Amino acid sequence: MSKHTPGPWMVSRYSQSTVLKSIYIRGGNERIARIAVPDTAQSIEEYEANAKLIAAAPELLTWLQLAVKILGNMPAISETWQVEQMRDVISKAKGDKND
After folding, report:
1. CB under 8 Å to 33, separation ≥6 — which residues?
2. Hey, which residues does 39 pair with through a beta bridge?
3. CB-CB contact of 23 with 55 (8 Å)
4. Crossing angle, helix 57-72 and helix 81-94, to 10 degrees?
5. DSSP string spanning 46-74?
6. I need a surface site. Which of 35, 39, 42, 46 has the fewest CB within 10 A?
């Protein structure tokens, strides 16, 4: 898989039409994602929270990789199921795993 757009990513302003609102996630000058908010949505809060989580992804990945590197050097912890789960999530985020 190719590398993702480098962070930081941020939630940008909304685009509004009469039927659909959109929240954009940007990385530099690149549009990373668009979250469509249907006009029937009673609240935009959940959509905003999802956008913020997506925008935090590069930082979350970086810090998780650092945590695994540190924990991997601790023999009593390095092979625990928790660290293995962290490794699996990193692989999934990098596209090495398809689940």
Report:
1. 24, 25, 51, 54
2. none
3. no
4. 140
5. HHHHHHHHHHTHHHHHHHHHHHHHHHHT-
6. 42
Which of 37, 40, 45, 42 minimizes the C-alpha distance to 15? 37
pLDDT, tens only, 2-49: 588 888 999 987 766 666 688 999 998 889 999 988 877 777 888 889
0.90 surpassed by pTM = no
Strand locations in the chain (E): 9-16, 20-27, 30-38
CA distance 16 to 27: 21
Give Dmax (Cα) for the chain: 58
In the chain, domain spans: 1-55, 57-94
